[in-house]
Write a structure and sequence with these properties.
The complex is a heterodimer of chains A (about 400) and B (about 575). With about 400 residues, chain A is of the alpha+beta class. Helix content of chain A is about 45%, strand content about 15%. Chain A is built from 14 helices and 15 strands. In chain A, the strands form three sheets. Chain A has an eight-stranded mixed β-sheet, with helices on both faces. Chain A is globular and about 60 Å long. The chains are: A alpha+beta (about 400), B alpha+beta (about 575). At the A-B interface, α1, α4, α5, α6 and α9 of A face α7, α8, α10, α20 and α21 of B.
């Protein structure tokens, strides 16, 4: 891609670079992305371009991405794909992001344009064992990035959830164990780095500028230490009668210009571009005396929240909305609830425990942490709770 | 066949007769319903004058209507627009589509012209053409009061359609409108005052379980979209919820698009309306969002577009004047967007500032085409031209622009320009990604990449309008989930991309029909003002004039992506690729 390029080219470059910088892909196996406006442009030359060009012809899209994920995702993905009967079928993660956005993840054996087109006509991604993930965007290359990172996240969560179950039933197989070792080493290192990460500025923040600066820096730190892939999560702060909150679909590491100032009295509807969890933030911030909330999707908090051995429970299969038990990970409550507003939604289930505790986990979804005055406390909570859940999980599967 | 009833009702008002068409399954698979099916019925007669008795007026549903599929209570009105001369379809809410399907019909095709004013009454398979002579000049609520409340559904026109207002609307069940393009006048030209429907049947589903699962997935997604189900979303504030956003983004059309920010906007925002009118919600059949807001006295609160055009566009900060303006339009049967834009054009052309009392009064004159209102009833373009100030008409292809200033969102600028029915925001609906961040944010001040995005969005929305579902849900869900609903309802295999492909075919078809009526790429343009004058910047946002060279580059890219020639004209090759029958202009 010569020169600075068009905006389409710049976006293609931005998101292929971001896949590497976030550790989702490696420099040794860089992603291949094509962006279209009137014409198709690629981030690099690659023999697989010809196949993808055929895929592009078969779909009404503006971005195509083929990338092999970095370790441990590659081994995890290949293992999960190997469990799909006959090599053609779907992987079915059960975390809330997957249930809501991805639904399931198709697998096809070969990088064959017809098979890829057939899969992508129905779903946002397709996994080709040994090659990686093929996905697309309709509006922007950012969508392809999001789809890719969502598959990595969902498969990671599914793999470790399944592993724990298989371990309990004594049916772990060698390939599974091998992927587990890679995942464990990877995440152990990630946690170590996260605990050593510089903390965000201490609160309280007394001006709009201080608030925005703290939010931007905390968002970046959260992504940098791997507590969330950039697209997931949200962050808010109460200053006077205004809640500052990250916008829906904004990336926590790119919050500049993506924070809404929403009056607490509801006299403006500008919060329609704010995070979908605005109501939760508002209730907690205005009723608890706390001023900061940081929400991420750290993986072992999500995994631990989904572990339950009550096999004959009448709510099995509906745990994410119906679980009636009072559950904790350490001192952190785990609550059911879906996105949105209603009795089984997190707008109802999450605020009560979050007002009372330093944090709360939403089943299969993510971790919400609070700070009395600022983000230092919320960030520390996020990292430490995730570290605890990582170790908690490892103990469950007999690892130290 | 599942989903569709397999029957289309044809009425010839000249002869006073009707007959039943039973199209083969292939017809349904090819044209789906709504917008797509409208093309099938219009293509052979689209070059006729809009008021020719042979010009069909279509009332069409889609396969999802009357089923548990979310927001599938919508329906389509289509014909040739009296205002623009383009092909024109509008997606309408209420119960009408639901009743039509339950009565056993996928659509109604009306041709001919009755000698005197008539109404059509359909109760299941009983069809009657009834005299409506006594309803001459009746306003719409009076027509509705002639039918038992809460029984069936009625679509009616008001005096505007009888007096030749070029943007006359069709009003359904008090609060739902086919506004854009003046299709109410086509109804008036046929001497048709109303269509009343009562249905008692059920729509057959191929796989009810699959429909239920698709619905669950769609509603789960809807719950994640603040614009839909959020505390400040349209489920609680109606479409007025968007108003504050336009103000904060400095793209609120103000003073006939001479400015892009209204200093009194916060006095007339959604919250202020809720404080003053404490509205209750209304909506389409089987919809959970329910975006209509109705004041305690029964008057509809203006929707976002109407609100902007009766406040900021006129520099009016009086809420009651806006509600009354909206009521007058609904009663006389006029498109609120066009009516508001015509008043703004009038203010610019004459230099008169209308008082809060004068706004509804002049609208009433417009609706009855009397006094100065008769001149305004011709629309902004004809009025401004007649008064020697054509630059004051903020229109594309003769259709008055809605409430997003194109200088503040370039995808919207391109979308307005290339829309097949003229200045319309709903064909490409770029506000979704340029403002509401759905599915992701795009740079609103750049044309880069927008040609393809606009084209793809038009394809998607053409599919949505053929299904006939609600576009609002697509702020959250996508055709991926709706394809599952379609499969569950009809039993026919379908993917998101299959539906998009169908949408592409329907949209190209419209482009062909417009070409047959003399429209070319030259008509895909914006008023000069947007290229010459800046908007009202502030809060760190600059609203520059649109760079014309960049706009033309994006338009040329759009023609290429859409498969048109460099002059924006359909090609035989693309036509063949899409499976459309070629016909020279």
């Amino acid at each position: 891609m010569p020169g600075a390029g068009t905006r389409v080219e710049r976006l293609v470059r931005k998101y292929t670079d971001k896949l590497i910088s976030q550790g989702l892909c490696s420099e040794e196996a860089p992603p291949l992305m094509g962006g279209l406006d009137a014409d198709l442009v690629w981030n690099r030359e690659d023999p697989d371009q010809a196949v993808l060009e055929k895929v592009v012809q078969g779909l009404n899209i503006n971005t195509i991405l083929l990338a092999s994920p970095a370790e441990p995702y590659r081994s995890i993905l290949d293992y999960l794909a190997s469990r799909v009967e006959g090599g053609e079928g779907t992987i079915q993660p059960e975390d809330s992001e997957t249930r809501t956005f991805l639904h399931d993840i198709p697998v096809t054996r070969r990088l064959d344009p017809d098979r890829i087109v057939a899969a992508l006509k129905r779903r946002k991604n397709v996994v080709v064992p040994g090659k990686g993930i093929v996905t697309f965007g309709i509006v922007s290359p950012e969508q392809a990035f999001i789809h890719f990172s969502s598959v990595c996240f969902a498969c990671f969560v599914k793999f470790f959830s399944d592993y724990r179950e298989d371990h309990r039933k004594g049916r772990v197989v060698p390939a599974q164990r091998e992927a587990f070792e890679k995942g464990k080493a990877f995440y152990g290192k990630l946690i170590e780095n996260a605990l050593a990460h510089p903390l965000p500025p201490e609160g309280p923040y007394e001006t709009k500028e201080e608030v925005l600066d703290a939010m931007i820096r905390t968002g970046k730190a959260t992504v940098e230490c791997g507590m969330v892939d950039s697209f997931f999560g949200n962050i808010s702060y109460l200053l006077g009668d205004t809640i500052f909150i990250s916008q829906t679909t904004s990336s926590l590491d790119e919050l500049q210009g993506c924070i809404d100032a929403c009056p607490v009295d509801g006299s403006s509807t500008v919060a329609i571009t704010a995070s979908s969890e605005f109501s939760v933030h508002k209730e907690v911030l205005t009723q608890s005396g706390k001023r900061a909330i940081l929400h991420g999707h750290p993986r072992f908090s999500v995994i631990v929240s989904m572990i339950c051995d009550e096999e004959d429970c009448e709510f099995r299969g509906r745990c994410f909305t119906h679980c009636p038990k009072e559950r904790f990970a350490g001192d952190v409550p785990i609550v059911p609830g879906e996105a949105g507003r209603g009795p089984r939604c997190i707008s109802t289930t999450l605020p009560p425990p979050l007002k009372k505790h330093r944090a709360a986990i939403v089943y299969g979804h993510g971790l919400f942490c609070t700070g009395k005055v600022g983000y230092r406390e919320a960030f520390e909570n996020l990292v430490r709770i995730e570290a605890d859940n990582f170790h908690r999980y490892m103990e469950m599967v007999g690892e130290s | 066949m599942h989903g569709w009833t397999g029957k289309i009702l044809h009425l010839d008002l000249t002869k006073g007769t009707h007959w039943v068409e039973e199209p083969p399954p292939e017809f349904y698979e090819e044209w789906i319903g709504g917008k797509g099916m409208a093309g099938a019925y219009l293509r052979d007669r689209i070059t006729l004058p809009w008021d020719s008795p042979e010009m069909p007026l279509l009332f069409l549903t889609g396969p999802l209507v009357g089923t548990p599929s979310p927001t599938a209570g919508r329906w389509t009105v289509a014909s040739r627009s009296p205002l623009t001369g383009t092909v024109c379809d509008t997606s309408v809410g209420g119960r009408f589509g639901f009743e039509l399907k339950r009565a056993g019909w996928d659509g109604i095709v009306v041709t001919g012209k009755a000698k005197d004013l008539v109404g059509i009454v359909v109760r299941d398979d009983r069809v009657e053409i009834a005299s409506a002579r006594e309803m001459e000049g009746w306003e719409t609520s009076r027509v509705f009061s002639a039918f038992p409340p809460k029984k069936g559904s009625t679509a009616a026109v008001g005096p505007a359609a009888e007096r030749g207002v070029l943007f006359a609307a069709i009003c359904t069940d008090h609060h739902h409108f086919s506004g854009r393009g003046g299709l109410g006048l086509v109804m008036g030209a046929k001497n048709l005052k109303y269509v009343h429907l009562e249905g008692s049947g059920k729509v057959s589903l191929a796989d009810p379980g699959a429909v239920a699962e698709a619905s669950r997935q769609i509603y789960r997604l809807a719950a994640t979209a603040p614009i839909l189900m959020g505390e400040f979303g349209i489920t609680n504030f109606g479409t007025q919820a968007v108003f504050d956003l336009m103000e904060s983004r400095r793209m609120m059309p103000t003073d006939n698009f001479r400015q892009t920010w209204f200093e009194a906007a916060r006095k007339v925002n959604a919250w202020s309306f809720h404080q003053k009118y404490d509205p209750k919600k209304d909506g389409c059949a089987a919809c959970r969002i329910r975006c209509k807001m109705v004041a305690k006295d029964g008057r509809s609160l203006p929707e976002f577009e109407s609100l902007n055009h009766f406040t900021a566009l006129l520099r009016n900060a009086d809420m009651e004047a806006a509600v009354e303006a909206n009521r007058v339009c609904n009663e006389t049967g006029m498109d609120t967007i066009s009516a508001g834009a015509v008043l703004a054009c009038y203010q610019e052309v004459t230099g008169k500032k209308l008082s809060p009392e004068e706004i509804p009064a002049l609208l009433e004159d417009m609706g009855y085409a009397r006094g100065e209102g008769a001149e305004l009833a011709l629309g902004a373009e004809r009025f401004a031209k007649k008064r020697g100030k054509p630059g004051a008409a903020m229109t594309v292809k003769g259709l008055e622009l809605p409430a997003y200033d194109p200088r503040g969102a370039y995808g919207m600028a391109l979308g307005y320009a290339v829309s097949t029915r003229g200045g319309c925001h709903l064909r490409a609906y770029p506000i979704s990604h340029e403002i509401l961040r759905k599915p992701v944010q795009t740079d609103r001040f750049s044309f880069a990449g927008k040609a393809r995005i606009v084209k793809i969005s038009e394809d998607i929305n053409a599919a949505v309008d053929s299904l006939t579902a609600c576009k609002f849900l697509f702020f959250a869900a996508s055709l991926e989930e709706f394809a599952k609903a379609f499969e569950g309802v009809t039993g026919l295999p379908a993917t998101a991309q299959d539906l998009m492909r169908a949408g592409e075919r329907f949209y190209y078809h419209e482009r062909m029909m417009n070409w047959w009526n003399g429209f070319t790429g030259e008509d895909d343009d914006l008023p000069e003002r947007f290229f010459k004058e800046p908007g009202t910047g502030g809060d760190g946002i600059e609203i520059e004039p649109i760079d014309r060279a960049e706009f033309l580059k994006a338009r040329a890219a759009y023609f290429k992506v859409r498969g048109l020639d460099p002059n924006g004209i359909p090609t035989r090759e693309k036509c063949r690729e899409l499976g459309l029958e070629w016909k020279d202009s």
